[in-house]
Amino acid sequence: MPEIVSIADPAALRRATARHLVDDVLAWWLANGPDDRHGGVFTCWSNDGGRLLSRDKYTWSQGRWVWLMARLARAGRRGLVDIDPATCLGRARRTAVLLRNHALLPDGSTAWLLAQDGPPKPPAPGQELHASVFADLFTALGFAALAAESGEGEWGELAERLLANAAARIAAGTARTEPYPIRAGFRGFSLPMILVGVGAEVLDATGSAVAADTVLGAVREIKTAFLAGDDIAEMVSASTDDADTLLARHRTPGHVLEACWFLLQAGRSLRRGGIAAGSPLFDAGTLADVAVHAAALGWDEDQGGLFRYADRDGGAPRGRRTGDRYEDLVVDTWDTKLWWPHAEALYTLALLHLETGRRDLAAWHDRLADYTYRVFPAGPGGEWVQIRDRAGAPLDKTVALPVKDPFHIARALLLTIERLAEASPAERSSE
After folding, report:
1. Are residues 335 and 390 in contact, defined by beta-carbon separation less than 8 angstroms?
2. What is the DSSP letter of 281?
3. Which of 133, 237, 372, 376 is 20 to 30 A from residue 413's alpha carbon, by CA?
4. What 3-state class would DSSP assign to 336?
5. Tens digit of each residue's pLDDT (9 = 90 or more) over 19-51
């Protein structure tokens, strides 16, 4: 089990986080994942990491791999983690070339799935190559990170083009959103959320006015359509007749916690670009309130950890059913304990505590860290067993894609290391 360290000792937490990232999470992925012949990473692993089930490559995961390798190259270059920057940057570039050469489709979208050596494949026989705007945006995310670290403008241009195309389809209501289609008449928080997260990274890499406008529009939508007090809805409907539905009532605490750091990062990106004046940005105090509400709503008082879904009033999701297949997923898996909400929440709570000095954020961080590091890691030299039941036992199930994705855990750990490295003595003594 990794060392569990309180946020009250940022220097020790940084060292422990770096050890776990390099010695366990990255050690497993770098030994098992990279396809250095064709570019990309193998992600179709069983939950325990013991079996490679397919050599196909989901573009959703490949774009994330580009981001991770490019950001690790930067961290290695800065001396934040003990890793070879040139090797990481080479892997980022080879994967980006794989995506550029094979995944980008004539209509400005991306294919959902690639064969090992690159040619796109339909998700299932007879289906179209493109299945989800999320694949487009994660590809853009990777290209933006590579542009920022390599200085190669081609990747920034491609990232901006993918972002603009995806944002236009989202605005027009024509974006496909597999693996979780959004019911007609509803709007999903996941769409403005991902536009904020990806748009901020494209803005940082390129200074793009298109990216800035995309971020501002998405932030405005979150504030006006999804936020009520300190609560953020997962889905909203323009019709008051839908207020009693399970779709309208259910919440996804992990999404909200992840979005909090997206929104804080977006504000920083816009300010760096001189675009923040008069814009509808979230301040750290508001985001801290939202994060604490989401953590409390999602926390399992009996077993510990964060529920996958919850009702807006707490507990199991409830409300009138509409026959949407997504409702079955919510009802059947609401009490599952998943890797990504816990990883993202740890970073968000640490970040917002360092920003505000609030003791409640520190307490939530340490409570969640104690649970997460007792339950999820697979052991020395291993990653995490990512999917657990309510009691914390491993589950052999698929979540979103049939993959073991090298993203949320490594990203959260890396971002935590970066932020702790920035912390000044004044910040460290804010308690």
Report:
1. yes
2. P
3. 133
4. coil
5. 999 999 999 999 999 999 999 999 999 888 888
